[in-house]
Amino acid sequence: MTSLLVTGGAGFIGSNFILYFLEKYSNYRLINLDKLTYAADLSYLKSVENDPRYVFIQGDIRDAALVQKLFRDYDIRGVLHFAAESHVDNSIRGPEIFIETNIKGTFTLLEAARAHWFESPQKPRAGYEHCRFHHVSTDEVYGSLGETGFFREDTPYAPNSPYSASKAGSDFLVRAWHHTYGLNTVITNCSNNYGPHQHAEKLIPTIIRKALAGEPIPIYGDGKNVRDWLYVRDHCSGLDLAFHKGKAGETYNIGGRNERNNLEIAHTITALLQELAPPSSRGLTVAHYRDLITFVPDRPGHDRRYAIDATKIETELGWRANENFETGIRKTVAWYLERWADKKS
Ligand SMILES: NC(=O)c1ccc[n+]([C@@H]2O[C@H](COP(=O)([O-])OP(=O)(O)OC[C@H]3O[C@@H](n4cnc5c(N)ncnc54)[C@H](O)[C@@H]3O)[C@@H](O)[C@H]2O)c1
Fold it and tell me: What is the mean pLDDT of residues 119-127?
């Protein structure tokens, strides 16, 4: 059984990934290292908590002694690095923890992998030649697009928020550890994910949560900021491909080819809620959930548009998204409706 270290596995994407991976493969043991910040929820992993192929360790990726011990104790042969501070609004209010977790934490993991897998720079220990470090990153490192164009793997980095700058910094560390030490790395930069397990603070859960509570649904600025939405399970299949088949030192962009602006998202969700859980069925007086949509002052430095060109992962690794936005958002709304059946705010 090959042991892989998954960091941040109790968060949104990491927990979806662990469930996807354990369902698909029987020959891996996943060691989930998660600090359990406000963004984590171990209940998502209830179905695997007694699975012998799954181990949970509560701890910080910046704790070098702990990370090194995990590499030794479990003889870690691969890393899937999800752990991060991930909310742009929080990074504007308090950037320091983003630098600590996203940059220092990534550095700590890279160093532990290098120590366990390498004898000296460019010289892996015998038997450790194929150990892979997969860094999960974001399309926000590329900055903002105008009305046209797409982010490609060769688009210059131009991060605009403390969050995206910290992710860009971590990407550069991973790149350097490949070039300098020969670490077998792969980086994936993906667009906005949505689906089950996303924290209530993010856009789509916020729209659902506020609507179900009959409260104003806040939309930044004019609501015309565009994101390219990727269903989380499609992201997991892309990660799986890049981890197993990606070329060492390469970057792959993963995006759903589903551009929507925030106002369109709010209209789609409120229409679905109107169909699946009409306000009257929840004791609300509002006639239609869309009447709750309220514009609020824009986020400082708010990037206008992100859109990914996923040609490289599609053509080189054969990846395809299974969901379009209409099918994915229906599944997502249904999941939150079940989870928040009695939610009041
Ligand atoms: N959600 C998206 O739309 C999106 C898009 C692009 C890239 N990403 C990237 O994907 C990764 C996962 O994102 P997510 O949305 O699942 O994030 P999330 O905020 O839902 O989860 C992050 C997890 O990391 C853990 N964590 C935070 N600091 C830690 C530390 N110091 N040590 C150990 N664990 C720690 C948290 O407890 C949490 O479980 C992140 O690296 C993020 O930058 C996310």
Answer: 98
